[in-house]
Amino acid sequence: DIVICSHVLYSIRDVDVFLAKMRKATRQACYVYMRATHFDEISSPLWQHFHDFGRLPMPSYIHALDVMYEMGIYADVEVVDLPSGMRFSSLDIAVEEMKEILILPDDEQKRAELRALLAGWLVPRDGILSMPVDKLVCAIMRFAGGEA
Predict the structure, then answer these.
(1) What is the pLDDT of residue 147?
(2) For the whole model, what pTM was predicted?
């Protein structure tokens, strides 16, 4: 009866084809959940530091909404605020996880450099280290199922 698509569309090349199949497979409603600001934009200074170039921004809900509009799908949109993502119980855990996210080599020099950057970048909140943003803005887009 319903389809829920949460944080999937970012890497889908043919979003229109994906959405059309999703809609066709659904009798009542489709829900698509996406970020307004992607984590890559927030962590961009860290990426830039290690790789000397910026990452291309990931699509956000507004891009998916544009595709829906072009397809004749008029979605209801609810913008929601979520607590800051990427939470770490320690700086050691943050270093290990961010090393993978930033695609860094597994050596002590990079680990030490990342640790120093994260120590100044992460914000302590209630005993947890988190990204330097208070909230992440996301959107829930709802549209009718069935063929157009």
Answers:
(1) 64
(2) 0.79
